[in-house]
Amino acid sequence: MSHFNPDKIQIGISACLLGEKVRYDGGHKSSSYCRKEIAPHFDYVPVCPEMAIGMGAPRKTIRLEKDGDVILVKSADGSIDVTDKLNEFSSNKVEQLDFLGGYILCAKSPTCGMERVIEYKVGTNNGWKSGVGVYARKLMERYPLLPVEEEGRLHDLPIRENFFTRVYAYHDWHCLKASGFTKSNILNFHARYKYMLMAHCPKLYRELGPLLADMSGDLDQIAAEYFNGFMTILKIKATRKNHTSALQHMQGYFKKQLSSTQKEELTETILKYNEGLLPILVPITLINHYVREYPKPYIENQVYLNPHPQELKLRYAY
Known about the structure:
Number of domains: 3
Distance between the termini: 40 Å
Order of helices and strands: EHEHEEHEEEHEHHHHHHHHH
Number of helices: 13
Strand order of the largest sheet: 2-1-5-8
Structural class: alpha/beta
Shape: elongated
Largest sheet: 4 strands, parallel
Strand content: 5-15%
Number of strands: 8
């Protein structure tokens, strides 16, 4: 069994996305994005529930059937019913995955689909795109804060950026947890994420702070409550307006150091970003330049300036 690795994020992934021939037709759904572009940054933990319960490939297709409040997993002709096997496997498997930093699922799958999986009315071919794959549901119920996304949706740049922002933040927190919570390191964590949280939801960021004002109670409980609020904020997509506000706040830290020309350039860059004429990468790069030139520890430590490796090419979405 794998364990939490502070040095490299481990990502769960549907095995078919890595080119493994585990699909019902003996094929795969290989994702070049997962296999080539992002693979160097993560250790993958591939899972195929159908193969894990011994269905083999190729095999008869299975589907979700709704019988009242019960979800069955059967072949269309009813000759195969793997409901119990899949539920048992899924429940057991997810218990072994507490070390993961994220999960990439295969869309539309009756086991791995995250949303909009077809559910058929039992015994008919009448279906609605309202279901969740059996395994995916168990995973998300067991780890409600775990960043989970479908591979196809990662081709949408804002969704991709939000997912990986959450993956790196989730891992950062679990590194902190592994080292042991103290009042000091929890407060420091919150301080480092100030502008990141502001870019996602200033209102909830302001509500999260008071939770840490008095840490005289059970520290683990306070930490758990804080992390729940923290990940809830990050799941909200950052907006251009909130990004602009965060950038302007950071600009204020350099008002004494920058020349009038430099101030003008930074102001103009932020405004052009706000108008949609520049990607956020441009003002962020400029602020990072000034951080190196005029070191400000508080700003230097802001995760917002470097939330994930540049090689992931994520800061082009806004």
